[in-house]
Amino acid sequence: MLELTPVAGALGAEVKGIDLCGPLDQSHYNALNEALQKYEVLFFRDQAMSPAQHAALANLFGSPQLHQAYPHVEGYPQLTILENDEANPSKIEKWHTDMTFRAKPPLGSILHGVVIPAKGGDTLFASMSAAYEGLSDKLQHFLGGLTAIHDFSYGFKESLEEPGGRERLAGMVLDNPPQEHPVIRTHPLSGKKGLFVNGLFTSAIKDMKPRESRALLDFLITHMESPEYSCRMNWRVNSVAFWDNRITQHRPINDYWPQHRKMQRITIDGDRPF
Predict the structure, then answer these.
(1) How far is CA 244 from the centre of its chain?
(2) Neighbours of 9 (CB within 10 A)
(3) Which among 5, 94, 144, 150 has most CB atoms closer than 10 A?
(4) β-sheet bridge partners, residue 185
(5) In angstroms, rounded to a whole number, what is the distance separating the alpha carbons of residues 133 and 139?
(6) Which bin fits 191, alpha (ψ -120 to 50), beta or left (φ > 0)?
(7) What is the pLDDT of residues 239-272, one digit of tens each?
(8) Which helix (H) or strand (E) holds 262?
(9) Catalytic entry in 67, 250, 251, 261
(10) pLDDT tier at 1, thresholds 50, 70, 90
């Protein structure tokens, strides 16, 4: 039986009582899925997962999504390497939901800490259901009728502007045209409603004038960044975070340069937001 300890008021729980490196079956899936729906992000300690074990855990929840913009573990194209050091500082500093530029954004992501800096490098998570509940009834109703545009090129504009960036990412740009998603998403399992726009990939609100769209997005992004909707993961080697990408956002804290930080991540295939 899982032992779950909440880490904040809005979301997040530390999980004990499971070995992610061992054989996992339907009972493990049921327990983890129930916990994920309740707490939205789960944290595990001392899980020395191999790439094969990491992939097996993700496979319980669905097929992986590939991300050609990042390198991957040899033999495991689904296992993305997120690595930064003095020569390669992190570029992503905004709150975001993973890969909302796709028609079917990921169900969730499982991130494994491989090399952790001596200090810094935490990750913030925020509950989009709590952020939604923090809005007035009238604004909830208004937002429920809106659609947002999510764009790979908007989110990776800095990488595209680098020398050779457009050539390197040409396939990703071609394979990921802008997508439309509802501003308010309904979780397909829990039924919870949550904000589904983010500062990294959401470029505009459909059918609004640019100034209106920008003002509304700026308000929503500022609102969802409120501390009362968030929790914080302090990484250690072999810590694991598993977040529900349908109802959360996250933000890496880039306060560890020039130290070395290496993470390995699998994103799990999701469904079309509604």
Answers:
(1) 7
(2) 12
(3) 150
(4) 194
(5) 10
(6) left
(7) 999 999 999 999 999 999 999 999 999 999 999 9
(8) strand 261-268
(9) 250
(10) confident
Q: Tokens for 68, please give them.
A: 């050609």
Active-site position among 67, 72, 98, 150: 98
Q: Is 181 one of the catalytic residues?
A: no
Mean pLDDT of the chain: 95
Among the options 112, 185, 261, 265, which is catalytic? 265
- Judged by DSSP in three states, 5 sits in strand
Please enumerate in sequence order all residues whose Cβ is within 8 A of that of 185, keeping only pairs 6 or more positions apart, or say none.
Answer: 128, 193, 194, 195, 196, 246, 247, 273, 274
Phi-psi map region of 45: left, alpha, beta (phi>0 left; psi -120 to 50 alpha): beta
**Can you read off the two tokens belonging to residue 185?**
């998403």
Residue that is written with structure tokens 């409120």 in the block: 226
Domains parsed from the chain with CATH numbers = 3-268 (3.60.130.10)
Is 54 an active-site residue? no
Residue 65 CA: distances (Å) to CA of 238, 256, 267: 22, 28, 6
What mean pLDDT comes out for the span 65-69? 81
Assess whether the previous peptide bond of 258 is cis (omega < 30° from 0): yes
- The pLDDT value recorded for residue 173 is 82
Residue 63 DSSP code: P
Beta bridge partners of 5: 14
Which pair of structure tokens corresponds to residue 264?
Answer: 């390995």
Both structure tokens of 172: 């990703």
